[in-house]
Every structure is written in structure tokens, then in C-alpha cells.
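Please fill in the sequence for the structure shown.

STRUCTURE ENCODING:
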């Protein structure tokens, strides 16, 4: 990293030579770079350079607002900001993007965080360990381009070390090649290790309500920046402490994006992410007799043979099939929606062409 970049006030927020190069065309326009730390309806908060330090300013987002929920600005984006007029004029190209499918019937994606280096999947140990949900998060994380890690939160509530060891081992089995940490924000267990991993980069904290994300965010940032509520007594489920995505600076360098609790985590174009989560299944599939083996009842299926021998657990195989089917269904629905939108656009262009032709001909003579 050059001396100029290392001395830039925004370096602590992730500014580097790559983003500086992307921003270069905007410099001549008198714009300044800023990182979006929070998005509200029609406006956003950005951190920008202010002399040798930084300042948080508000920007009007109307010039970059889009109806595409994947391309809309979000926390973590880098922007070209007009300080005189108060407008965000452009967004810089994203390096990574964590996207899930929405709950709507339109098969749309929703971006949760941009330009993220680490995706922290928070799994509370106050409830039964749901490994299928962990695998789902991991598929989206790998697909985003970020490096995932799994944090088992509220580890202080598991008093038996042997039980905690089994929970970590089970999670590691569902997350091959991924760091799994047992963490307690209350006692500090594992927090220093997690903080060291996140130093200097951008991380997003993901998980359901009640996973202790806001408490963990406070522990990592070293300040009570996020409001914390206790879980509901009647069912142990968490309230929505965080209602917007916020970007928080970390004392060791780097930033953390805290997100609201996620009720649903639908896949979005995550074929390669699923393949990476189930790398051992993908490797076995290479040994199947048929190239297009569905791993259901085909002869010479190496995946089924591994399941029969116990080399591959039935739970892993079932989860693999489920996520593949879901991703395929979503892809089919998305393709159908895109075809319908193209037909609609074509009809509108045809109608506009006819209208313009009629205007050129002028009014009909009686």
C-alpha cells in the first residue's frame, strides 16, 4: 500500500489503492469518496475525510436510487459524494456483495452488505444447533466472495466443556474449511481471537434475532454502540435489537457491519456457494458413473455409496439435495421473471414506436 493511501483518513474504513483507482474519474468532478455507514429512506450517512480525520455526513440518494434491490445502495458501499450539493452522485464497483432472496413471490434478491471481507455467522447456543441453517448461511457467504466464519455465541451458557466441544465439532463438520469459534461476549471468551481475525478488514455480522449480535458488536467495538435487549422469557427468542444495518469502526482497525436479525435466509444464485459448502459431496460426485447423476437411485453413484458406508452422513446428503433443489427452483423462477420483463419492455417499445410514428404522420385528415 502506498504512503499516500496508508495516510488517508479513510484507510481505517477500508480505503485502499483499488478503491482509489476506481474513484479517480470522479476526482475531476470535484467529488469526494465516502463509505456508506447507514441507509435510510431517501438518505444515507457517509463517513468522509475531513482534513486529517473523518466526519459523518448525510447525503441525498435520489440520484442513485434504483428499483433493483440488488443494485440499490447499502451499508458498506463506497460512494462519490458531492459535499457542496449534498448528493451521492455514484457508487463505486463492489468487490463483494452478500445477497439473499426476498420473501416476495417475484424471486428478487436483496443485498445485505457490500465490500465485505469476512461474513460472521452468529449461531446462538441458547437453542438447538441447526446445522442446516448454518450450511445455508455458509452457501450465501461463499457466494458473496467474502470469507465466512462461524461464531457460536453465548458459549458461557454451556457449562460442560465436553458438550461445548461436541457442539464446536458438529459445526465444523457442517463447515469444512471454515473457522468455528465458541464466543461469549459476557465473559470475553473467544472475543480476542475473533477481533484478531477481523483486524484491518470489513466484516458483516449475520444471524437470527436473539443470537447476541449487538452484544458481540459492542464487545468487538469496545463501546456500547448498539442497544441490547434481553431475549423473551416465554420462548427464548430474541427481540429485534438492530433495525438497520450499521457500520462500526473497530479499535484494532477495520469495520463491522451489524445487521438486523434475519428470519428467513433464502438462497440467491448460490450454486458455487453450495458446491463449496459441500465440497466433499462434489468431490464424490466426480466419481459417479454418469456425468449427470442425480444421486438418488442411479447405479454407480459414488455419493450414495459413501452414504451407505457412513463416509457421508445422511444429514449432509439431505441438506445438500435440499439446497440444490431450492437454488434450481429459484433460478427457474428468476429466468421466467426476466423473460416476462423482457416481453413487457418489448411491448412498451413497440407501443412507443407506434405512438412516435403516428405523431410524425400528423392528425388524420377527414
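FILLED IN BY: designer on duty
SEQUENCE:
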Amino acid at each position: 500500500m502506498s504512503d499516500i493511501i496508508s495516510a488517508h483518513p479513510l484507510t481505517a474504513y477500508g480505503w485502499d489503492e483499488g478503491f482509489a483507482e476506481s474513484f479517480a474519474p470522479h476526482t475531476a468532478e470535484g467529488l469526494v469518496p465516502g463509505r456508506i455507514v447507514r441507509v435510510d429512506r431517501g438518505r444515507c450517512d457517509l463517513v468522509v475525510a475531513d482534513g486529517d480525520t473523518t466526519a459523518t455526513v448525510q447525503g441525498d440518494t435520489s440520484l442513485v436510487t434504483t428499483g433493483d434491490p440488488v443494485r440499490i445502495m447499502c451499508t458498506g458501499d463506497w460512494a462519490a459524494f458531492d459535499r457542496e450539493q449534498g448528493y451521492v452522485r455514484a457508487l463505486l464497483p463492489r468487490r463483494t456483495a452478500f445477497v439473499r432472496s426476498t420473501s416476495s413471490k417475484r424471486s428478487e434478491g436483496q443485498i445485505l452488505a457490500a465490500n465485505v471481507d469476512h461474513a460472521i455467522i452468529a449461531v446462538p447456543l441458547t437453542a438447538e444447533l441447526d446445522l442446516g441453517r448454518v450450511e445455508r448461511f455458509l452457501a450465501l457467504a461463499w457466494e458473496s466472495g467474502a470469507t465466512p466464519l462461524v461464531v457460536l455465541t453465548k458459549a458461557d451458557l454451556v457449562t460442560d466443556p465436553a458438550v461445548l466441544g461436541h457442539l464446536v465439532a458438529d459445526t465444523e463438520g457442517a463447515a469444512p474449511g471454515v473457522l468455528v469459534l465458541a464466543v461469549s461476549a459476557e465473559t470475553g471468551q473467544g472475543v480476542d481471537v475473533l477481533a484478531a481475525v477481523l483486524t484491518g478488514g470489513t466484516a458483516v455480522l449475520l444471524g437470527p434475532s436473539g443470537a447476541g449480535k449487538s452484544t458481540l458488536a459492542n464487545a468487538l467495538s469496545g463501546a456500547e454502540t448498539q442497544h441490547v435487549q434481553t431475549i423473551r422469557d416465554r420462548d427464548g427468542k430474541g427481540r429485534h435489537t438492530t433495525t438497520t444495518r450499521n457500520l462500526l469502526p473497530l479499535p484494532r482497525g477495520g469495520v463491522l457491519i451489524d445487521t438486523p436479525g434475519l428470519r428467513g435466509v433464502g438462497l440467491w444464485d448460490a450454486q458455487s456457494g453450495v458446491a463449496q459448502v459441500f465440497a466433499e459431496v462434489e468431490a464424490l460426485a466426480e466419481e459417479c458413473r454418469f456425468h449427470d447423476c442425480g444421486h438418488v437411485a442411479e447405479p454407480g453413484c459414488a455419493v450414495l455409496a459413501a452414504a451407505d458406508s457412513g463416509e457421508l452422513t445422511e444429514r449432509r446428503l439431505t441438506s445438500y439435495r435440499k439446497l440444490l433443489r431450492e437454488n434450481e427452483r429459484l433460478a427457474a423462477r428468476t429466468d421466467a421473471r426476466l423473460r416476462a420483463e423482457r416481453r413487457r419492455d418489448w411491448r412498451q417499445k413497440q407501443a412507443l414506436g407506434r405512438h412516435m410514428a403516428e405523431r410524425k404522420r400528423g392528425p388524420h385528415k377527414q
